[in-house]
Amino acid sequence: MKAIRFDRFGGPEVLRMVDMPDPVPGPGEILVEVHAVSVVAGDCKLRNGEMAGRLALRPPKIPGRDGAGIVRSVGAGVAGFDPGDRVCFTCQYGEQGSYAELALRPQGDVVRMPGRLNFIEAAAVTHAGICAYIAIVETAAVKAGDRVLVHAAAGAIGGIAVQLCRMLGAEVAGTCKARNVDHVTALGAQRAIAYDREDFSSAISGQDVVIDMVGGDVHARSRRVLRPGGRLVWLIAEPFEEPDDGRDIEIRQAVIKDSPESLRAAIGLADRGRIRPLVSQVLPLYRAADAHRIMEAGENTRGRLVLDTRRLAP
Question: Quick check: pTM over 0.70?
């Protein structure tokens, strides 16, 4: 098989296409013919060595946190999956990832892909959908009538979070760049606050929930917009310290675990049209380095950047 791999830590230029032996599924494993994968910020941090201290695995490494494709073969003991089934799957950063023609996954990391979604859409929803679902439904427990502020609302996770909040009957506001205000309101936010034009902590107050995917100073300022007893839920945030300001605020971390239940829930909502897959752009697999450059330059908004893994050469 062909795969995108890095043999040393470094910039996007260390990503290169290589030929590797086709994996063979063992007991409880599924071999997936990959059609699409999403590109997430963690892929870049893995490649540049930022995660090296937390992972036992060192280069050579195939990046990739998730994917969508077709079952090629299954190992002994696998039940409920057959060759030809359309599936979505997740990968852990400590393992070989999904930027490849084939991915070998434990059965517990694979779920059936609904019929209405194509592979690009499914890949865009997989990791982003899991994160948003865990944050909004499982951690924040957003309910009808709640006033919710979602930070980074134009991003892949934030955009799905906005949609989930509206689906649940909440009153939603989102922060984003000025150029993305119309996009965020189109997703269902009643209000979009352009953080490059105004300070959200002076523009809004009395929130029941804040979803923080930024951290740092944004986390501290988010405390000010919450009502007494409000919930500040954070995930994938820059380092921050909790100030001792005496405010009655509940802090919850959305712990992202790739449970098949969360993935089925998110994918099912997309299949039923309750949330819309957000695809910012699609690049062929051989342009993985360009995808990482786009991500690190902060140029990707309005959804997931997806790699089409069936396009292996110009």
Answer: yes
